[in-house]
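Technical note accompanying the year-one report. For the benefit of new consortium partners, we illustrate the data format agreed upon in the data management plan: each record pairs a sequence with a structure-token string. No post-processing was applied to the example shown here.
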Amino acid sequence: MSYVLRSVSVLAALALVGCTQTLDGKKLEETISAKLKGDKYPVSSVTCPADQPVKKDATFTCKVKFEGDLSVDVNIKQAGEGNVEWEAKGILLVADFAKSVDKTVKGGNPAAEVTCPTDKPVIVVKKDATLKCSVKIDGAAVDYVVTFKDDKGEWSGKVAGGDAPAAAPEKPAAAPTAAASAEPAAEHE
């Protein structure tokens, strides 16, 4: 299933550069990486711009790289006093999504075996994107094509070449988001 990172409080420390308060980009990178890794995402690196001035409602972007050469942008918004919120839309762990497809397909045939591609552990879900899985029933394999309805992970699936769509999961997967807070640093001139 695709997923929204729950709102959590993390530390994105402030640093002083001259007389302007700035967010500690390295600390924010560590926080985002730790959260994603804790949720089983295979993160290779997170890169955030250095020395972002602390300013309520200011936005910037960090880049997350996953194993398998996939990169996604993480949108950062400052909520004030060093607090930030972040969101990465439509990140999907293929292994978790395969379980969701398996559950849906087995609802119609408990003997079915579902396999989704494992060459890339993470994909980004976008409206009308497709993912081809395989369904094996009684030794015969057929392609099962999943089509995403949005970037939140809502999907429908059907046997390739078939007319009857399979039911989508009850709850669509969602996009990653989280919140972070920073300790304010005194401003000096």
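Partners are asked to follow this layout when depositing records. Residues 92-166 form one domain.
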